[in-house]
Design goal:
The protein is an alpha+beta fold and 238 residues long. It folds into two domains: 150 residues, no CATH class; 83 residues, no CATH class. The chain has eight helices and nine strands. It has a three-stranded antiparallel sheet, covered by helices on one side. Helix 6 runs antiparallel to helix 7. The chain is elongated and about 65 Å long.
Length: 238
């Protein structure tokens, strides 16, 4: 039977949200709560972690895939790794994600969306480190946890106004033919306003970098954001 532990640890925080620079020496404190030992199944060629960890006797007794090697980690010694790799995290982490407040990083003109960022106090390890791309170096016998950044989890740093126009034009095309004679007047007005905001966006948002401006594009009246995801009240913007 697996033994469960509670282990507080300190980990580096980036200079700002979704950044891979750590020059300011910021740190966060978190508590790992979970199995004392986690066993990773590592692909023998790529060194990539398979996507889930083993800790129950039942899981550990099943055969290991022939193309993988199992590596067991003591979570007392590597709590950050274990926190990142252990399913979706603790109840504390789930509660934090659901209830934390975001602060405005860039305030948008009327009709567009503000860009929001996390406060340092509201970071959790999964905001900084990429749990889906953990790798293991068989030569050094060390794990590597990539840092999330704009290129991998947001708008890439080299995003241009040409890229912006491509997305804006796609959204306009998606809205073509939506308005019809049977549509309620209130919804018709929402679609007309939405389309006009898109048309005006290159001028209205010109003061911002393109990568910021694209995050300010209005959500569709159909309830989709700029990435095509369902809109929620407290959407994460990077």
């Amino acid at each position: 039977m697996a033994t469960y532990i509670t282990k507080e640890f300190t980990y580096p925080l980036p200079d700002e949200w979704c950044d891979d620079k750590f020059t300011q020496g910021k740190t966060g404190t978190w508590t790992y709560e979970g199995p004392e030992f986690l066993t990773f199944e590592i692909d023998n060629v790529s060194g990539k972690e398979s996507g889930w960890c083993l800790w129950t006797d039942e899981d550990l007794e099943r055969p290991c895939p022939v193309d993988c090697t199992r590596v067991t980690v003591d979570c007392n010694e590597q709590p950050l790794l274990c926190e990142i790799a252990n399913d979706c995290g603790s109840e504390v982490a789930l509660s934090l994600r659901a209830n934390r407040e975001w602060q405005t990083a860039f305030e948008s003109p009327e009709g567009y969306e503000n860009c929001e960022t996390l406060r340092d106090d509201d970071f959790e390890p999964r905001d900084v480190y990429d749990e889906f791309n953990i790798t293991y170096d068989f030569d050094t016998e060390e794990f590597h946890i990539p840092v999330k950044n704009h290129d991998t989890h947001g708008v890439r740093d080299d995003f241009t106004w040409d890229d912006f126009r491509t997305i804006r034009n796609r959204l306009l095309a998606d809205a073509d033919g939506v308005i019809d004679d049977d549509m309620p007047e209130s919804m018709r007005e929402k679609w007309l306003t939405y389309r006009q905001l898109l048309r005006d966006s290159t001028t209205a948002l010109a003061e911002f970098p393109a990568g910021v401006a694209v995050q300010m594009l209005p959500g569709s009246p159909a309830g989709k954001d700029v990435k095509g995801n369902d809109m929620v009240d407290d959407a994460e913007v990077v």
